[in-house]
Amino acid sequence: MNMGTPPITATPMTTDAEVLLLAQWLSPAFPVGSFTYSHGLEWAVEAGDVRDAATLRGWLGDVLAHGAGRCDAILLAAAYRAESAEEVAGIDAEARAFAPSAERLLEAEAQGRAFAETLGAVWPGAALPALTYPVALGRAARVEGLPMVLTARMYLHAFTSNLVSAGIRLIPIGQTEGQQTLSALTPLCLRLAEEAAEAGLDDLESSVFLADIASMKHETQYSRLFRS
């Protein structure tokens, strides 16, 4: 398991190979099971809080800017900058403690474990222990020398895309409305990734109480398509 501390280059150059590697890691085809999680969205649809493309966009915008999106980007960046295995472990422990519900913790742990297992099987030099998903991705990007901001951008975009896909199935809305929603939220993903590069663990905070409650309610929801 590689938890070493490869140097951070001051101005890493983005290459086609780096973009394609991140695209592979964050593709729906990469077996982390992201399609099985809705991040509490399934309950929000059941409760009527999310009922069309406009309310989906508002819900996801809040989750990104004031909830898990921003926090995950900060955790990813912290794991990328960490200088020891002990520091990575501490960041991971904080990520677990910050999960607001059992299902949200499951979401982070299970995806991170699956990511690490596949990473070790395909890229043995980047093998990692079982970490929460954003921490694992941030550390893997550091080991492979991938740009931190680009990694955070693509992570946030993939996170949003997965929840848009869940919204298409749950509400339901059309594929075109889904793509319009994702396109509208892309600038926010870019901004949050840039901000995370300058933030630290002391900047972690969340104020999306309804989304957190939705993830708790989902645990006992009678009819479910998703694990969270």
TrEMBL record:
Give the Gene3D superfamilies listed for this entry: Urease accessory protein UreF
Q: Does the keyword Phosphoprotein apply?
A: no
Signal sequence extent: none
Asked if Calcium is a keyword of the record, the answer is no
Record's subcellular location: Cytoplasm
> InterPro entries given for it?
UreF, UreF_sf
Keywords on record: Chaperone, Cytoplasm, Nickel insertion
Which HAMAP family has this protein been placed in? UreF
Reported function: Required for maturation of urease via the functional incorporation of the urease nickel metallocenter.
Quaternary arrangement and interactors, per the entry? UreD, UreF and UreG form a complex that acts as a GTP-hydrolysis-dependent molecular chaperone, activating the urease apoprotein by helping to assemble the nickel containing metallocenter of UreC. The UreE protein probably delivers the nickel.
What family does this chain come from, according to its entry? Answer: Belongs to the UreF family.
Write down what this protein is called: Urease accessory protein UreF
